[in-house]
Design a protein that fits this description.
By secondary structure, this protein is α/β, with parallel strands linked by helices. The chain is 54% helix and 8% strand. The strands form 3 sheets. It has a 5-stranded parallel beta sheet with strand order 2-3-4-1-5, with helices on one face. Strands 8-9-10 form a 3-stranded mixed beta sheet, sandwiched between helices.
Length: 578
């Protein structure tokens, strides 16, 4: 007979043989024992975790003539027939190659016929997510209400691709990745049965490379056995899986921690020249850093180490390694792992990552980490600086109290923080001379032009800039300058102290009016005083209309009445007739 792969020879034949899925096997056994089986099941999970094997075991157990506690006997004709595939009542269908509507219709037509030998007809549809939409629709009604003698078991690695109408009609069991220890235990059982010598550390390397899949682990184990002439050694396991020997990993990580980039790159170059997979190398480094960190925090839990073996070199490295740098290295390696998925030159990313890690802060100390953590920190320099600052503050307070420091000198010092450009509590002083000059040359047409585009101007500005102008309005304008009145003094001060804001408003107004205007800001309370003063002086000097069209030739006895009216309603709403 031709040689069979280990995963075929040692395929589980009972629920007890299924490794790492007790939450599934126990439920199925209880359902069989209590006669509460369902008409349809969905087994989902990663590859090589026992989905199809569990389905065939379930088919045997539910049809076995001598079933005990939900386990098949594997000795009766039905159990043996299901195992070798000679009983037609248990059909295993590959949905990847039978994914059309016609194949499902054929199943739908045959389910109505009673089983020939067994008690139940069991349809095991593997990789069910490969079925077409039409095939799923053809399966719906039969899957929901099959004949009493029919059971469907659907298996898939990608349950998210199944329609919800299918998932709602089945009992779902999620198979999880098998732990490293369970895989090691199963491989040890197989090697003992085959009378093959092995090193437990080699089994750990193979189990970790399998990434939770028992079939992958047994396939790798098959390769290691063939490579090493009927013996499983660490060197053979490292060679087949592409992993790195621990002494090289320890040397590489020690070079990273001591910031010896030359030695780290030399070690890396030697590994890559031997044909080591860069992606596998990054994964090995990630797990190794994880083991270093866990050993630092819990040295008594050596069984939690996945990649490292707690030898003397590893223990010394773990005792000296800086925890903060381990965190930083893990982040760098994780980012590198993500980037390597989309490149044809992964080796370059590994080299860059090694150099980057050697340049990180921290590293190893000359004393163990526990002693280093307990070492006292020298704070004398900080205390000396704090005492000096306190003395300077006390001296300044005395000088201010005695009046030896002039207020102008204190105010001339630049303020610290975000509010350095804001006049600390001083009242904003508008340039009255410039404003009087604008009022003297003011024209109603210029003011109306600016007011006409004011709404459009606000819509053009950013929200923060428009907020300053929400309660501001142009109140006077000449041919090249206009006066902008702010309701609140703080808004006026913030606007005029911001060169970018002034430039933005000037440019926007000029663009909208096709005239090069500049503006002068003034708070409302100061504007009322400046305007009243200007009107009074202007009435004594000349006649005519002011910038808002207010008559200036009114009799002096009406000046008080007119000015009070202007204060109440404003210039624009006031009309004076002789």
């Amino acid at each position: 007979m031709a040689y069979q792969a280990l995963y075929r020879v040692f395929r589980p034949q009972s629920f007890e043989d299924v490794v790492g899925q007790s939450h599934v096997t126990k439920t199925l056994q209880n359902a069989i024992t209590q006669n509460k089986t369902s008409h349809a099941y969905l087994f989902s999970g990663p590859r090589g975790t026992g989905k199809t094997s569990a389905a065939k075991i379930f088919a045997k157990a539910i049809n076995c003539e001598h079933s005990t506690n939900g386990e098949p006997c594997n000795e009766c004709e039905i159990c043996q027939g299901i195992t070798d595939g000679s009983i037609p009542d248990v059909l295993e269908i590959d949905a990847a190659s039978n994914n059309g509507v016609e194949e499902i219709r054929d199943i739908r037509e045959k389910v109505k016929y009673a089983p020939t030998v067994a008690k139940y007809k069991v349809y095991i549809i593997d990789e069910v997510h490969m079925l077409s939409t039409g095939a799923f629709n053809a399966l719906l009604k039969t899957l929901e209400e099959p004949p009493k003698h029919v059971i469907f078991i659907l298996a898939t690695t990608e349950p998210h691709k199944l329609p919800l109408t299918i998932i709602s009609r089945v009992q779902r069991f999620d198979f999880k990745r098998i732990t490293t220890q369970d895989i090691i235990g199963r491989m040890a059982y197989i090697l003992d049965a085959e009378k093959i010598a092995y090193d437990e550390k080699a089994l750990m390397i193979v189990a970790r490379a399998a990434e939770g899949g028992m079939r992958d682990a047994l396939s790798l184990l098959d390769q290691v056995i063939s490579y090493g002439s009927e013996e499983v050694t660490i060197a053979d396991a490292l060679e087949i899986t592409g992993s790195v020997a621990q002494n090289l990993l320890t040397s590489l990580v020690d070079s990273v921690m001591t910031q010896d980039a030359a030695k780290a790159l030399e070690t890396l170059s030697a590994l890559l020249s031997e044909g080591k997979d860069p992606i596998r190398l990054v994964e090995d480094l990630l797990v190794f850093f994880r083991d270093v960190l866990l050993y630092q925090k819990a040295p008594n839990l050596e069984e939690t180490l996945e990649r490292a073996l707690a030898d003397d070199a590893f223990k010394e490295l773990a005792s000296r390694a800086d925890t903060s740098k381990i965190y930083a290295c893990v982040k760098v390696l994780n980012d590198t792992q993500q980037q390597m998925r989309f490149t044809n030159h992964p080796g370059i990313y590994v080299e860059v990552a090694i150099v980057q890690m050697t340049q990180l802060g921290g590293g190893v100390s000359s004393v163990p980490a526990s002693e280093n953590a307990a070492a006292p920190v020298d704070t004398s320099a900080f205390r000396q600086e704090i005492d000096q600052l306190r003395g300077e503050i006390a001296s300044l307070k005395k000088q201010l109290a005695s009046g030896s420091v002039a207020p102008s000198q204190a105010e001339s010092k630049p303020a610290r923080g975000k509010k350095a450009n804001i006049n600390n509590g001083k009242q904003f002083k508008a340039p009255i001379g410039k404003i009087n000059h604008v009022l003297g040359a003011a024209k109603k047409q210029d003011l109306q032009l600016i007011r006409g585009c004011w709404g459009e101007l606000l819509s053009m500005l950013m929200a923060s800039q428009a907020a300053l102008l929400n309660e501001a309005e142009p109140v006077a304008a000449s041919e090249d300058t206009f006066v902008l009145k702010f309701k609140h003094e703080i808004h006026c001060q913030m606007a005029m102290d911001n060169p970018n804001f002034v430039e933005t408003i000037t440019a926007s107004v000029s663009r909208l009016t096709k005239t090069n205007y500049t503006f002068i800001g003034i708070p409302e309370n100061q504007w009322l005083e400046v305007r009243e003063s200007f009107l009074q002086s202007h009435d004594m000097q000349s006649e005519g209309d002011d910038e808002a069209g207010t008559p200036k030739s009114a009799p002096k006895q009406e000046d008080t009445f007119v000015s009070e009216a202007m204060k109440l309603v404003g210039e624009d709403l006031l009309e004076i007739k002789e």
